[in-house]
């Protein structure tokens, strides 16, 4: 069994942000190492937690890690992409919940397991699938997607300003032979980025690898779809907590929450806002919640973390 050496980011802030009802129904959309799930379960009496993960490794690990809560009937696992949250919960007879958590990004064991091909620091076959049942992997994108499509994902998902140069380098190399490993891809990315630029801003392959991971797993599309459903699933006073680790995700969450908490097209000079025009949701904190100084010192992964929380205020 894989050992999850994983420090959960913003653990207390996120679970406290749910304002848990001990008899409520909660959803952890990103089970991973089980840190948030365990903290929620510790606060439940007659309540229940449904924990999602598309990675069988995480499910298998937590069958032992959280065994006492399974035996108590408080915990159910759902192996699926969280974009299917409504369908999966409805199939279990759940149509409204009291709180939902998202801890986005890749779990530490996925990065640490070289065979998964997520990391530019380990040599492995290009893969990057969070769900090993999916057919699309990083190898297919790198070797088969056209130049224009590569440029698009590198720029949109990785914010790589040398997207065209990197895509050309990939195109040129794959004409001679397939690009099979992370190590090969790292060297090709370096070919596309000027030497002066490679000396600044961290590892030169970081942005392209992020873009490939997002594309392989449709992370932004899945998040948008899942959040749209989560907002509808939340009952009165229910909350959604989302931890993001990069600007694209955070911007998406911020904008979606803003849409739900802002009165759109408000007429000018309206003296009183009619109740029917009031938003159904409110932001629990107007600005994102950031890790404490202590957490920043102890957990490097927390440095880019942002927590946003929304609450339903209408019945």
Nutshell version of this structure?
The protein has helices spanning 11-17, 35-42, 56-65, 67-71, 85-91, 108-112, 138-144, 147-158, 163-174, 182-192, 195-198, 206-217, 219-233, 247-261, 293-298, and strands at residues 25-28, 48-52, 75-78, 97-103, 234-244, 281-283, 306-312. It is an alpha/beta fold.
Describe the structure in your own words:
This protein is α/β, with parallel strands linked by helices and 315 residues long. The protein folds into two domains: 11-103 and 220-312, Rossmann fold; 115-217, DNA polymerase, domain 1 (Orthogonal Bundle), CATH 1.10.150.170. It is 43% helix and 13% strand. It contains 15 helices and seven strands. The protein has helices at 11-17, 35-42, 56-65, 67-71, 85-91, 108-112, 138-144, 147-158, 163-174, 182-192, 195-198, 206-217, 219-233, 247-261, 293-298; strands spanning 25-28, 48-52, 75-78, 97-103, 234-244, 281-283, 306-312. The chain has a seven-stranded mixed beta sheet with strand order 3-2-1-4-5-7-6, with helices on both faces. Strand 1, helix 2 and strand 2 form a beta-alpha-beta unit. Helix 8 (147-158) packs across helix 9 (163-174). The model has no long low-confidence stretch (mean pLDDT 92).
Topology (SSEs and partners):
Blueprint: H1 11-17, E1 25-28, H2 35-42, E2 48-52, H3 56-65, H4 67-71, E3 75-78, H5 85-91, E4 97-103, H6 108-112, H7 138-144, H8 147-158, H9 163-174, H10 182-192, H11 195-198, H12 206-217, H13 219-233, E5 234-244, H14 247-261, E6 281-283, H15 293-298, E7 306-312
Parallel strand pairs: 1-2, 1-4, 2-3, 4-5
Antiparallel strand pairs: 5-7, 6-7
Helix pairs in contact: 1-2, 8-9, 8-12, 9-10, 13-14
Pfam family, one: Methyltransf_5
Main location: cytoplasm
Function: Specifically methylates the N4 position of cytidine in position 1402 (C1402) of 16S rRNA.
């Amino acid at each position: 069994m894989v050992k999850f050496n994983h420090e959960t980011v913003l653990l207390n802030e996120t679970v406290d942000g749910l304002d848990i009802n001990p008899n409520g129904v909660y959803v952890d959309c990103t089970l991973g190492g089980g840190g948030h799930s365990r903290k929620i379960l510790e606060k439940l009496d007659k309540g229940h937690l449904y924990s999602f993960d598309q990675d069988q490794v995480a499910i298998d690990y937590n069958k032992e890690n959280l065994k006492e809560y399974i035996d108590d009937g408080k915990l159910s696992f759902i192996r699926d992409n969280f974009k299917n949250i409504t369908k999966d919960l409805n199939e279990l007879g759940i149509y409204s919940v009291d709180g939902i958590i998202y801890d986005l990004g890749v779990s530490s064991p996925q990065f640490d397991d070289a065979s998964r091909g997520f990391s530019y620091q380990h040599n492995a076959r290009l893969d990057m699938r969070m769900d090993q049942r999916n057919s699309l992997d990083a190898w297919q994108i790198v070797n088969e997607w056209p130049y224009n499509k590569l440029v698009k994902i590198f720029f949109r998902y990785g914010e790589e300003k040398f997207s065209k140069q990197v895509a050309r380098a990939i195109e040129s190399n794959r004409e001679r032979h397939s690009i099979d490993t992370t190590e090969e891809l790292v060297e090709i990315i370096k070919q596309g980025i000027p030497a002066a630029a490679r000396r600044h801003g961290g590892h030169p392959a970081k942005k392209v690898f992020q873009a490939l991971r997002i594309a392989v797993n449709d992370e932004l599309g899945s998040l948008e779809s899942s959040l749209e459903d989560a907002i509808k699933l939340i009952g009165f006073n229910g909350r959604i907590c989302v931890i993001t680790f990069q600007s694209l995700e955070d911007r998406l969450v911020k904008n979606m929450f803003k849409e739900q908490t802002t009165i759109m097209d408000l007429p000018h000079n309206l003296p009183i806002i009619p109740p029917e025009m009031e938003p159904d949701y409110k932001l629990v904190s107007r600005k994102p919640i950031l890790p404490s100084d202590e957490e920043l010192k102890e957990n490097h992964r927390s440095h880019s973390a942002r927590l946003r929380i929304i609450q339903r205020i209408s019945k």
